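This is your field. Please look over both lines of this record.
***
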Amino acid sequence: MHKIDPRIQAALVTGSAKRAGRELALWLARQGVKVAVHFHLSQEDAQATLSECNAHTPGGVLVKGDLRDADEAARVVSAAATGLGGLQLLVNNVGNYLRKDLFELTPQEWRDQLESNLYTAWWCMRAAAPAMKSQGFGRIINIGYAAGERSTYNRLTVPYHIAKTGLATLTRSAAAALARSGVTVNSIGVGILSNSVVKPVNPPAGRFAEYADLCNALAFFVAPESDHVSGTQLDVSGGWIPEQIL
């Protein structure tokens, strides 16, 4: 696995109380990075994650906030940077997932899928970018969806796929906007995980993705040799292509 860029001393991983965010935070802590563990409602899980992170690399902090709100997101990023003594890496992992027929969705559910998967990344990126630009270095990793750079038509996950396609557009656009400042912006396209709610019967690779596979993708993007890789999505899908349900 790639070695992490030594300039990365502190990272904010959003939605890191549980599941993939937790594993990404723990992987970073094992590499010697101080981690800000973010949560919205799962405080007990977040505290457990932080304790484990700090057992590897002391100095991590806990930050709470609803990142669907721009002001809250800015406050979370600021609190993370202050608590860690700087911020060189932002991992935008927050994002809810709902399977529900298009015309059964409530307005609140529609908004939540778009805001949690797309708006949160933009609000946090917008808050973190100025300091990263001024220090001449930064890494932003968005957690996307496998094949998210092309349209996916599934009537059970419409707002989710709209958001993830938008995230791919945001990633490429932000990468170009920040290219001269030493800040790279990339995304990890997550396929079917072994603990996913819905799984195909026979995946192309014969297995589903594990959290270790996501950590491997993160390791590539934060390696010093990857400083010219920006605006790219790396799919961790084992050749799986999202289903089309019309």
Remarks:
- Residues 10-236 form a domain with the Rossmann fold fold (CATH 3.40.50.720).
- The chain has six helices and seven strands.
- Helices lie at 19-30, 43-56, 70-84, 107-135, 158-178, 211-221.
- The longest strand covers residues 138-145.
